[in-house]
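Re: export button greyed out
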Amino acid sequence: MSYKKKLALLLVALVATLGLSACGGSDSGEDTVSGTFEVLPAAPAGYDNLSGEAKLTRADGGTTTTIDLSGLEPDTEYMAHLHTGGCDGAEPGGPHFKFNPSGSEEPPNEIHLSFKSNGDGSDKAEASSDKEVPLGEAGSVVLHLADGHEQMAALFVHGGEDHGDDQAGDDHGDQSHHGDESQQGEAEPDQEQSDKIACAELEGASAEAAVPTIEVRNGEPVGGIQELEFSAGEEIRFKVEGDEAEEIHVHGYDLMKDIPAGGGSVEFAFPAEIEGIFEAELEGQGVQIAELRVNP
Amino acid sequence: MSWLPLAHALAARQDLPVPAWLFAWGASIVLIVSFFALAAAWRKPRFERQHWRALGAGFSRAAVSMPVQAVCGLVGVTLLGVAVYAGLRGTEAPDRNFALTFFFVTTWLGFPFFSALLGDIFRPFNPWRAFGRVAGGAFRLVAGQRPAHLAYPERLGRWPAAVGLLAVVWLEIVYGSSGGVAVGLDPHAAGVAALVYSGYTLAMMALFGVETWCERGEVFSVYFGMFSRLGAFGVEDGRLGRRRMLSASTSWATIPGSAAVVIASIATTSFDGAQEGAFKGAIESVFESLADAGLGLNTALRLTDTIFIALCFAGVALVYLLGVRGMRTVQGAPSLAKLRDGFAHTLIPIALAYLVAHYFSLFVFQEQAQFGYLLSDPLGTATTDLFGTANSGIDFTLLSANAIWYVQVGALVFGHVLGLVLAHDRAVAYWSDYRQAARSQYWMLAVMVAFTCFGLYLLSVSNG
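Workaround output, generated via the alternate export path:
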C-alpha cells in the first residue's frame, strides 16, 4: 500500500470518528416543567387581568427559570420566587425553594426573579442557576410586589423575631400581622391583604406527583418490574404499596423496610450515592419488584 | 411467567450500559487503530522467541523450590477444603457463603486477571496437582517404582479442557434455576460439584499422569495457564525468569483443541453478557415456545440457555474459521490446520479483554466481601468471626460508573491491539513474502474488529 493510500485511509477513519462522536454528543437530557399564573384570592386589587406563564428548564446541570407576564401595573417593581409547594392551601407556594436547605435566603441558594414592568404592564424575566433543581422540589413560582415584600421583612425585624429563621416563619408573619392591618381600612395603599399576587403551579413537579409508587399484589409487582431512573446525587424516592406483610429490600444500598401485616405502604428516600443498576425485591419471596438505575 | 428476572446471586449491583457516545468513541478508536495496524512496519517476527532470562540467581530458584511449592500446594488444598465445607455446611444465601464467591469470583476471575500479569500462579496452588504429586510420591515410596500411566491420546489434546470450561460456566449460570427463573447455583450444589470435579480430576491424573493432565485436560490449569502466556514471567528449568511480553503465547496452541479453549472463553463471556441484554428477547421467546411444548419450566430454561451457549460457541468459532479460511486464499499460505492452530493464540488477549470488560467491577466489589465478611464467617451462619471482619460490607462507591466504563472500553481496545500485534507477528513468521503476509492480515483484522465491536455492542446494550 502506498503512502498516499494509507493517508487517505487514515483520513477516512478520522472523519468516521468525528461523525460518530458528533452523533453521540447530541444526547444531552433536558426537561421542562411549566405552569400558568393564577391570581390568588387574597391578592391586592387591580390584577384581574393578570395572565402569564412560568417555566423551569433543567439542562446541562443548570436550571433556567423564566416568567412571561401581562396585566401588571405599569412601571412597578415585582419579585417572583421559586417555592417548593403547590398553589392551593393557606400558604400559596409554601416555603421558598433552597438548594441547600440550611443555607442562605438569597440567590444563588434561592431562585429569585426581580423585575420592573414595562409601560404597558407586561414583562419577561429570567433567572439562571448553575445547579439542577430536583424536579420534585420545584412546586410553584409566586409573584409578589417588590415593595410589599421588603416591607414585610422590615415588619419582622421590628417584631423582634429572628429573621434568620426559615422562610416559613416569614410567611406566617405575613398573615398574622398583615391580616390585622388590612381590617383598618382599604384606603391606605400600603396595606394590602397580601403582597402575593399570583401563583403558577409547575406541572408534574409537585412533590406528591414525583414519588413513584410500586404496587404489589399477591406477591407480584402490578404491571411487571418497575424501572426507576435517577441521577447520582439526587434523592431516590419511591413508595411501595403492598397487600400483605413483606420486607422490601433495596440491593446495593442494602436498605430494608417492612410492610405491616394486612398491607400498607412504605416510602424509601435516600441519596443516590452509588451508580449502577440495583434490584428492589420482596425479600421473603425473592421476587424482584423494581429496577433502580442510578446514572452518573 | 412472562419474564426472566435477572438473578445474579452474588451481584447486588450491576453495571450501567456504556453510553452511546462512549460506544462511538470506542468503535472509532478501534477503526483507527486497525488502519494503523495495516501499516504495521515490522517484517521479522518478534514474539516467536521468548528471550527468557532468569531473575536474580538465588531468587529464581527459591521462588519455585520444593518447600515453596509444598506450602502453596497446602494453601490450595486447604482453601478448596474450606470452600467445599462451606458449600456443604454453610448458609444457602449465595452472597453470604464463602464457596460461591471463592469459586466463581476469586478463583475463576482472579486467576485470569493476575496470571496475565504475574505468570502461571495457579500451578503451584493447584490443589489437585499438589494432591496428585503427593499421591505419586507415596506410590513410589510404597511400590518402589514410578506409577505407570496410559499414553494420552494426542488428538484429544485440550478438548477435555474446552468442554470442561463450557461445563463450569454452564453450572455457574445455567444449572441453578427454580420455577423457570435463573437463580444461580446454590452453595450446596457448588460444594458437591467441586467434590465431583476433584474425583474426576484425580482419576484422570492417575490414568494419564499429573503433568500431562494439567497441560491438557484439567480445566483450571489449562484456562488460567492460557492467560499466563501473555505475561512476562515464566518458569524454565526450575527457575523463574523474565521473558518478552506476549512471546510465550505463540507456542501455546501447539496442542490440538487449544483453539476450542479460547473460543469457549469468548463464547461463554459473550453469553453471560448478552443473556439479559442483547439476547434477552430471543432467549425469552425460545424459552416460551419450549415451555409451551410441554417441557417443565426448569428444563425449558436450562435447555434454552444451553442452546444459546452452543450458538455463541458456534458463532465465535465460525467468525474465527472464516478468517482462517480467508487467510488460506492468500498466496503462499500454509495448510488450513496450521493456520487454524497457528492463530488461535491471537484470540487470548481478546478473551482476557472480554473478561475484564464484563467482570472487572464484580471482581472489585465482590473481593471486598471475600476478604471481609466471607473470610471471617465462611459459613455465613454468624457463628465465627475469625479475623474480626464478619460485619464488614462492600463499599459500592469505590468505582464510579464512568471509571467502570473507561476500564471496559479501554480493555477491549487494548485487547484488540494486542490481538492485532500477535496476528501480524505470526503472519510475518508464516509468509516468506512480506506483502502476502500483510494481505493475509486483512482477514484477521476483520475477525478482530468483529469481536471487539461485538464486545462493545454487548456492553452498550441496556440490560433492562
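Chain B has one domain: 20-460. The button fix ships in the next patch.
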